[in-house]
Design a protein that fits this description.
This protein is an alpha/beta fold. The longest helix is centred in the last third of the chain and has 21 residues. A 7-stranded mixed beta sheet has the order 3-2-1-4-8-6-9, sandwiched between helices. Helix 8 packs across helix 12, helix 10 crosses helix 12 and helix 11 packs antiparallel against helix 12. Helices cover about 45% and strands about 15% of the residues. It starts with a strand and ends in a 21-residue tail after the last helix. The chain folds into 2 domains: about 210 residues, Spore Coat Polysaccharide Biosynthesis Protein SpsA, Chain A; about 90 residues, no CATH class.
Amino acid sequence: MVEVSVVIPTRNRPDALLKCLTALDAQTAEDFEVIVIDDASDTPASRLVESAALPHLNLQFLRNERRRGPAYSRNRGIQAAQGRYIAFVDDDVRVVPSWLQVHLDARQGVEDSLISIGPLAAPADWDSQTWTRWEAATLQREYDRMLAGVYTATWRQFHTGNALAPRECILTVHGFDEGFLRAEDIELGLRLAQSGCQFRFVPAAIGWHYSRRSLTAWLQVARSYGDCDRRLDAMYPEMHWLTQVERELSRRHPVLRFVRSACPPAARSALAFALGAVSPPLDALGGTRLARGALSVAYELEYLAGLESSHGQPTGGARPASFESGVK
């Protein structure tokens, strides 16, 4: 038995995974295991990192024979875990040496239903893209607001790129909903909150996020979050979630509100891609503010496309079979 099980899903990113594992190997905390779930990578991840020098890691690999997505993969890791707590980190995140100990220290003297959330920070040596820098800056503004006391952490800030939660709490709510291929952590965070869990932002538990994704993939993330909000409203009608979403949309920047009203729904994705595509040259010419504004509009348009779509991923609510029996 160990104190913490670190669960990492991965697919076709062996270099990033190795750097993630190397950072975990340097942790000041000692009583933990690492479970990597290989989501049917073209070459098994275990083969690509087996020769690496990771002397301090209690490491095991699980492999999906076909691609199943991060929710399924994390559920496999949770079921295999021996730890009292589950720490989540993504394969493109490199945590600081004190990362796990900071998460554990945040639990001292509090209820065992606490879930701690660490920042996904922009590294100084990051070979980033315009849209991933926009994403990092947007997250940083959220962290700054929490630090300033504007609001406290809730299920909406529960991102599995950097978090720690009691394993029993996750099992009690039956783990991740595998009907979500993205934003599965937000939906799980909502159920954890409904079960009585509290959330805390722990700024010193830093994970350096070396994110790289295509423009198309970045826009798909925005659409997925819109789709997630639409599905949450359908799954939990008592929350009247879309009413809250509409209230927040009504407080957006006037430019975003104008574009939302002026752009026909059928044209939103094309305009979003065009705005994303012009952001790198704008940024390169010194128009960083214009580039970020274009990306804000692009993200909003794709988010709205997901929010207002009647298609997309299957409706959530199908719990994984491995969790049907409840806490094990």
